[in-house]
Amino acid sequence: MTALLLDRRQLLLGGAALLAIGGPARAEASTVRITVEKLAFVPEEITVRAGDTIEWVNKDPFAHTATVKGGWEVAIPPGKTGTRVAAAGDDIEYYCRFHPNMKGRIVVSA
Ligand SMILES: [Cu+2]
């Protein structure tokens, strides 16, 4: 009888742990991917959380950058990727240094 009670308790605890993993609170940072193709950032706007990795995948045969005026810059070589870990202050617009018409926006959600 005592053993049965213990088993039930363990089941409940196990269920709570599963809920914690699948629940709305995200335990791990994720990677948000932007395709850079035909002189455009796709999608143009992304939403991330601080700590997420932003990854630009360059499918063009020439170099691009993700550049913030007066701020940071990520090089995105042809056929390669550039990454940045999103910071709380990254709620911002960026452009490409070589093709200033290329624009993107990062929204940082709480
Ligand atoms: Cu460019």
TrEMBL record:
- Which InterPro entries did the record assign? Cupredoxin, EfeO_Cupredoxin, ET_Amicyanin, TAT_signal
All residue ranges annotated as the EfeO-type cupredoxin-like domain in the record: 17-108
Checking Pfam families in the record gives: Cupredoxin_1
Superkingdom per UniProt = Bacteria
Q: Which Gene3D superfamilies match?
A: Cupredoxins - blue copper proteins
Family annotation (PANTHER family):
BLL1555 PROTEIN (PTHR36507)
Record-given protein name:
Cupredoxin domain-containing protein
